[in-house]
């Protein structure tokens, strides 16, 4: 018996879990969510068609990339992993959490833009790839239907993440800036925080792998413009070190001297994502105020498997971004990830907390440490739900 990962090569969030498993040398097999067992047992158990899902050797089902990782980092799978990915330093841990959030959520705009707005380069590839979702032995008609369905949903999702004709050129300029900053950092360090991958690298690989490195259009851009980023992507998806250009004993950077190249990447996160996540928290707080009687442990939606705050305009927020206005869907999942940053920092000593604030302030992202929804997001029954009222 081994671990089974239900996911797909084209799937952004599967990439996070797969990269983790490979990097840690954990044995697993990956199968399509179109497979019979997924459809008849996993999907009903998790309440929606979603990947990644993992089934453990003793039959436990885990949905969500972060939860899959924590099964090995903090749960019963711990003896199977090779190294810890949560830094001991509270400051490095906080930085790493920021990049987990940003990689999985803040880089969705370039991920979706470069996937869905370059049909000439991408479409045949995506059609072939998305038929894999139909599972083995599916006939051509079924496979084609899977692609059509996935394509329709994902193109709609792209606009909900702020990919529009107006934002397209700005997304490209912004992504090129990101590549330059990341590439510069990788001149000296094989991973975000030095000698080994941490949770931030696994967050970043989400967007950087399936969409941005694997799809035909952006892979060209990365290889031409930021080859070190391309090598980092490859390093993140192998099981051996792949560290030719570095001399490292595997240790992380010193948290008292954060490299300028990393500060620049944090500053970029602020410019790219802080206004958006702030607007999302504000919108969620208004929504929670409008729903004072919401029972704890529920999300108040007719369809509890729905992923945004609410259907329609009530579940969207508008913010300024690179000189234009964007309106995007508010996803409580992001608050759940951000809570990890807040919780871990809250459990650190006063000196470490103060130092972390200084580092965040120098990068222009201190306010991220203070963004709170009026109720916490919890995950119950594999779904995001609101916890009890905590403030106001
Ligand atoms: N936070 C979630 C996000 C998972 C997610 O959004 N997965 C996408 C694929 S990358 C999905 O399953 N979408 C369902 C669909 O096809 O509509 C996780 O890591 O589990």
How would you describe this structure to a colleague?
It is a single chain. This protein has 392 residues and is an alpha+beta fold. The protein folds into 2 domains: 3-80, 3-Layer(aba) Sandwich (Glutaredoxin), CATH 3.40.30.10; 90-113 and 168-389, no CATH class. The protein contains 14 helices and 8 strands. The protein has helices at 12-23, 36-46, 65-73, 90-106, 108-116, 119-130, 140-160, 168-185, 199-209, 216-225, 227-236, 260-290, 332-346, 350-362; strands spanning 3-6, 28-31, 53-55, 61-63, 316-321, 324-329, 375-380, 383-389. The strands form 3 sheets. A 4-stranded mixed β-sheet has the order 2-1-3-4, sandwiched between helices. A two-stranded antiparallel ribbon has the order 5-6. Strands 7-8 form a two-stranded antiparallel ribbon. Helix 1 packs parallel to helix 3, helix 4 packs antiparallel against helix 13 and helix 5 packs across helix 7. The termini are far apart.
Short description:
This protein folds into 2 domains: 3-80, 3-Layer(aba) Sandwich (Glutaredoxin), CATH 3.40.30.10; 90-113 and 168-389, no CATH class. It is built from 14 helices and 8 strands. The chain has helices spanning 12-23, 36-46, 65-73, 90-106, 108-116, 119-130, 140-160, 168-185, 199-209, 216-225, 227-236, 260-290, 332-346, 350-362; strands at residues 3-6, 28-31, 53-55, 61-63, 316-321, 324-329, 375-380, 383-389.
Number of domains: 2
Low-pLDDT stretches are none
Main sheet strand line-up: 2-1-3-4
What overall form do the CA principal axes indicate? globular
Heteromolecules bound: glutathione
Pairing-aware structural class of the strands and helices? alpha+beta
Major pleated sheet? 4 strands, mixed
Portion in beta strands: 5-15%
Give me the count of strands.
8
- Helical content class: 40-55%
